[in-house]
Design brief:
alpha/beta, 105 residues, 45% helix, Rossmann fold, flat, 3 helices
């Protein structure tokens, strides 16, 4: 991760009403294996359940099937960058909000 940047996305529901973090799922997306496993071990030691992905494509699949509360992603990766992943997730969230508005209205 050195000199490449990391993004953190906290999804809705990862904080309780008092603002304290819950014991939630954390997805770590990082193409460097040592950094990926090191982050997973560290975050697991803090009491979170962790899952890992080696690139944005695998990360997107795990977001869909594992529903993490928090996503930690590298920004420069093969196949799909962290920025591309964040853009796709933002589009998906916006679509979900639009769909909810249609159903509620």
């Amino acid at each position: 991760m050195a000199n490449r940047g990391v993004a953190l996305l906290e999804t809705a529901g990862s904080r309780n009403n008092s603002g304290v973090m819950n014991n939630e799922r954390v997805l770590i997306i990082e193409d460097e294996e040592n950094e990926r496993t090191g982050l997973a071990e560290l975050i697991s030691a803090w009491g979170y359940r962790t899952e890992t992905a080696k690139d944005g494509m695998e990360g997107m699949d795990k977001v869909t099937h594992w529903s993490p509360a928090i996503i930690v992603t590298d920004l420069k990766m093969p196949r799909m960058s962290g920025m591309d992943l964040l853009e796709r997730l933002a589009e998906r969230i916006a679509k979900d909000i639009d769909d909810e508005g249609v159903r509620a209205g």
